[in-house]
What does this fold into?
Amino acid sequence: MKICAFLGSPRKTGNTNKILELTINELKNLGHEIETVYLIEKNIKGCIECFECQKIKDKPNCSINDDMQNLYEKILNSDCIIIASPVFCWSFSWLIKSFIDRTFCFDKYNEDGTYISLVEGKKCGLILTSAGDEFEGPDLVVESYLRMVEYHKMEDIGRIVIANILSEKDIFENPEVYKKIKKFVENLK
Ligand SMILES: Cc1cc2nc3c(=O)[nH]c(=O)nc-3n(C[C@H](O)[C@H](O)[C@H](O)COP(=O)(O)O)c2cc1C
It folds into this structure.
């Protein structure tokens, strides 16, 4: 399967990428082809609500000429995407928020209020890390994520939520981390 992972932490060697890399190793062992996009290296502006995207129904047609144009192609050419984010103030990181807002152009509305999604049926997974417990932000982010997946008519393949990370030990010496990764990758067998 062709998988594209989007890292939304500003820290390329932070907690979220550590979990993402452990997950990628497992997915590679299963024979999946994976590319990681570090959103911190990309220029991605916020959605400006111009609705140019609604004028053309079979491609994203976003009017903003930035790195997202290339990422639209990557998403459309993937079978599965993984969104990896730290919890920032009870929400996705700013990098993931702009990224998700810009995927609005995949949904093409009809006059009767129905819509088609250019990413319908694609698989989507979430990796989330936080310093607080599961109810200090991760709960809300998971809810937003599930709404997004449903809205885009994608298929949720699961979520790896690692809360209470205060040091590297909480990642590498926590058996729960490996259990959660194993369960997640099994959904892509
Ligand atoms: C600006 C900011 C806001 C944060 N907000 C929350 C929060 O609302 N809830 C929480 O549990 N952790 C919060 N954290 C902690 C991070 O989610 C946590 O340290 C995360 O694992 C960092 O991931 P990274 O190393 O990949 O960037 C916040 C951290 C920062 C820098």
Notes: The first helix runs from residue 15 to 29. The first strand starts at residue 2 and ends at 7. The chain has one domain: 2-186. The mean pLDDT is 98.
